[in-house]
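Q: Hi! First time doing this. I have a protein sequence and I read that you can turn it into a structure. Is that right? Here it is:
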Amino acid sequence: MPNIKSAKKRVKVIATKTLNNKSFNSGLKTDIKKANLSVEAGDANKADSVKVAIKKIDQAVSKGILHKNTAARKKSALARKLNAANA
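A: Yes, that's right. Below is the predicted 3D structure, encoded as structure tokens:
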């Protein structure tokens, strides 16, 4: 446990940020799963669910939760599945 006041504050701030990041990451994974399921099931709104997932991925990159190459890989996989389902 830190003794210095600023170090104690950093511990609190990091705990808060970690909690926010975990919450956002959980929602991101949920949106990606929903998009994958809707594409596989052939739902009428599959393009919308993919669009929502891609937006969430981009938000994760801007917040620093995901690396940009990881995001590009995830978006590309979603787009490939969507295009294969439409073809």
